Each structure stands twice: as structure tokens, then as C-alpha cells.
Amino acid sequence: MKTLTKISNTIMEKYLPDPYIFVTILTVLVLLLGVSLTDSSPLEMVTYWGGNFWKLLEFTMQMVIVLAAGHILANSPIFKKGLSAVASKIKTPSMAIIIVTFISLIACWINWGFGLVIGALFAKEIARHVKKVDYRLLIASAYSGFIIWHGGLAGSIPLSIATEGHPFANLIGVIPTNVTLFSTYNLFIVIVIALTLPLFNRWMMPKDEDTIEVEPSLLEEEKVALPKPENNFASRSERSYILTILIGLIGLVFLFHHFITEGFALDLNVVNTIFIVLGIIFHGTPQRFLAAAQDAIKTTTGIVIQFPFYAGIMGMMTDSGLAAVFSQWFVSISNEHTFYLFTFFSGGLVNFFVPSGGGQWSVQAPIMLDAATALGADYAKTAMAIAWGDAWTNMIQPFWALPALAIAGLKAKDIMGFCLFILIYTGIIISIGFLFF
């Protein structure tokens, strides 16, 4: 395994381009495929792209805040001391890889947005304490927990079909989570991955001579010089603890009321609210909070620039019918025994071009649910096969790795050599789950 991962890392470092280059190549590829495999003309494909370019603005802003607010919270004195205290208990590279993977899996099972940020922040803090741990594998391990998100409490597809009035309710009705998230096959997949992926990641640890430790510059914290206090209202208000207490109290009351009335419902907006409220409280004064925010925004460049391109790609895939072409091909080679497996594979393929759980479900559901009806297949399991396909190829689709990479200060090519083997390993487990359970 050490030899294989070394070869994989070497190939990725030489040939995997920056995520921005990747998304531009993907844009051209989808345009050409749309012209070749559908009735769309080149001009129509371009208009599909341009017409959808700004369709992910709300989601883009949510992800920017996830990353920025996570940074703000992580750079607060209390949070840094807490992370440092936990990380200091980890003494060996092997323990570092295992614990980071497990914490990331648990956090992403609870909520994917929370898990993406916390896993990367925890990994970076561990790198400060543990010597001779491969930083690339450490961050890949933190990201690998994301594989589990669609089988967890925040999985968008199972939660969608469990909601009254969802778009496909007339065909499949309302499907409760006890037959999706808490089904035998899903629990098998989740539990096996949670118990074995930390050990698999540890197995990929490079030899000592091939280990690449963290660059010290990535762990340096830029000290922000705060303005000297002045004896006027503006300066006093910027350094006021009273304002922090009042805003923090308002935020905490809202969150408390939300969880009392809505249950443990964590969507991106709630996660962001938690991060921002705690960031305000932990930094103490508005001045220190805003200084941390200014520093955090620098890490969001990749998301701001690249997500509109993915929105354009998704538009070309859906409006041209190209996503339907891919899905129908998998249906055509399926039977009642292999249908769920090929649905999972089709979900993985479509996810390269439509890296959004909700967007992918809207594209694939009409085709796959009709096929399930014709084959007499189970609707809940069909939906979960699409969901796991969406989660699976995130391991080598840089779209979702951007927040973790921004926190870590790495590039996609630094971790994708490891992520390729995580993809293969988890793909075997997920396939077994859908074939034999």
C-alpha cells in the first residue's frame, strides 16, 4: 500500500491541475458531450451554461460563511486552547491519522458542513503537536470523513423524501428515515466505514523517507495589529464587551429556541449561526472579532470563483438532458439484482458534473424512480443508492475539498493520491451493502 500510494501521489502531483483548471476543463468537456450525446447545439449549451452561472449564489455564500466563520471560531483564544489541549494528547503519527479520521467521520455523520470545517481545523492543530506525521495524509484523513455524510443525519436526499409534499411524493409517498438512514444496508455501510476507514488511512502512511511534514509557514499565525485605543465613542464601542454579551445572548436564545421547537435540526444556516455566535462570544470584543473575520475571508477565494462555474456545468447537464443520458445508460444494463449497484455507480458518475446532493436528486430521481417502478425495486433503497453515489465520488471531486484545502493551505493534488484509494476502498464497502443487504 505504501508503494501504491507513493505512485498515486507522484502521478497526482504531476498531472492533477489546480481545481480552477479542473473546473474549466470540466466545463469544456460537458459542453462537447452535450453537443455529441444530445440534440443540443453548441450555442444552446453555451446558453445553458450562462443561464445557470449564478444559480448557486445562495449556496456559495453559505459555504463562504462556513469557511470564514469556522476560521473565526478556530482563531478565538478559548477555542484554540481547547483544540490544542486535545491535540496535545496525541503522541504518534499513527494515532493522529486514526483519531482525525474517526472524529471527521462522526462530525460529518452529524452534519457535513460542521464536519468539513472541524475535521480540517483539528487536523491542522494536530500537525502543530505531532512530529513526523505526513501532513498530506492528515488532511486527506480529515476530508475522508465526508464520505459518510449522505448516510448521516444531514443527508439531503433521505431527509427530502421524508418531508411532506416533496417533489416526488405523488410517486413514492413520504418515506421515513427508519427505512433509509436507519435501514440495515445503510447502517452496515456506515458502521463498517466508521470502524475500518481510520485503520485503512493509517495503512496508507508513507515510509519515513517519503513522509512530507507540514511546512512551518502554514502553521504561522499572522498577528493582526489592532488600532490603539482612543478616548472616544467609536473606539470604546469597538472594544466593548457589553455589545458582545448582548449579541451573544440574542444568538444563544435563538439557537436554544430553535433546538427546543425544531429538534436537533442542523442545516447550513444553523451551523453558520452557531459558528458566528460562538466566534463573537469567544473573541470578546467586536474589534478582535472583525480582525479575525478580515483574516478569514482571505481563505474563501476558491469557493467564490469556482462555484459559479459548477453552477454552469450543472445547468448544461440538466437542461441539455446529458445527466439523463448517463442515468438511462446505467438503467439499460441493470436487472432486479444489480439495479441498486448500478444506481450507485450512476450517482457517482453524475456527481462529477453535478456536485450537489439536492441538484443531483432532482436530475436523477425521475429516471431512477421510473426504472424502480418498472423493475419492482424499492424506492427508499433507490434513493439511498443515488445518495451514496453522490457522497462517494466527492473523494476525488475537488468541489467539496475546497474548504478543507483552504484551511490546511494545501492544493488538491497534495491529497488526491490518498483520496483515490479511499474512493476504491469505500466503494467496495458501499457496493457490498447494496448487493447483499
From TrEMBL:
Keywords: Membrane, Transmembrane, Transmembrane helix. The keyword Membrane applies. It comes from the Bacteria. The chain crosses the membrane at residues 20-41, 53-74, 94-123, 135-159, 179-200, 241-260, 266-286, 307-331, 337-354, 415-436. The keyword Transmembrane helix applies. Coiled coil: none annotated. This is Short-chain fatty acid transporter. It comes from Lysinibacillus irui. The lineage of its organism: Bacteria, Bacillati, Bacillota, Bacilli, Bacillales.
